[in-house]
Amino acid sequence: MKRLCLLIALVASPVFAQEEGMRRSYIDLEDRAYKMQDAIQTFPGRRMSASPNPLPMPTADLPSDFEIHYEWEGESYGIEDFNERTNSNALLILKNGAIVKEIYRNGSEPDTKFISWSTAKSFTSTMVGIAIEDGYIDSVEEALTSYLPALLGSAYEGVSIKNALQMSSGVEWDESSYDFRDLSKPLAYQWENSIVQHRYRFIEGANSLLQSKEPGSKFNYSTMDSSILGWLVENSTGQRLASYMEERIWHPAGMEFDAVWLLDGPEEIGREMAGGMLAASLRDFGRYGLLMLNNGRSGERQVISENWVREATSADEEAVSYGALYEGYPLGYGYQWWLFPDGNFEAQGLFGQLLYIAPAENVVIVKLSAWPEGLVEEMEFESYAFFNAVVSALENF
Question: In 3-state terms, what secondary structure has residue 375?
Fold first, then answer.
């Protein structure tokens, strides 16, 4: 009753009405480049403090005339062209842990907290792995309901943790559109009622969903699956997702700046939006990429299990194998990671947030963008052409 009264009081206030309007208009095209930088001013969040011992990120020793050029649709372009053509907000290129390029645009700076959108899903996946390593969860083969009994009787009954990690829960969810005004789509409906209006927590919408496929049989991209994984970590560990991640990743991995995990309600009752909306600095996204590149190590410390990194970046089921996700799309899918046939992998978020990792070449690329639509195929594949050119240009360094 106390919680309900608190929520009613919050929603009834004029301040809340103004804040609700800001949250609703956040995804509008107007000033999108700047909105990607100021989400922590629009949405409530939980802060993760910077590490007392940041991981050094030196400047790479490259020739003064070093440049990167890439080919796209018969034309040759450079880095400035790439950033302009694909609406970059910031770009970081790392080779052997050193900075090759660090570019901030549209007024952003090193301590700017860029919203990650679905790039956060890959962080959530890692927290599941750490919870397993810490003994809070037995294995990915267990049913979600073993840790989330509130899902008994829902479409998620019979779905394993692994099914959710690989987006093959079989639970009906249509994320083919990112028109947040179209409330006939489940993501838009949950966004409006949870993230915007704070009427309930995002995951509470899971109980209204239907089972459409046998668990494990078909890939279906679902922010609800990812959000439930965040709830899984919270329930199994007895800690807030942000608090647990601060303790187990943000500090031991040597993150330089504070980060904020945005919530689906007021701080008193809101949950971290585990399917998206982690806000962090460009360099710290890069440090997370280095953590995965180095098989879970940061400096001399093993932060994530090497076995987990290997499993998380493997397409080990037919439903998520290369080319099986969408017709004509060559990537595969791991535990909330997009996988390339050449062994590279990435975290990917709405409006062009890309964390690209090339393990064999020791390269990490972070591109934070403000695309005009949630998904822009031309910009996505032009980005991959640029990334491949980066890897080739750095081959001998």
Answer: coil
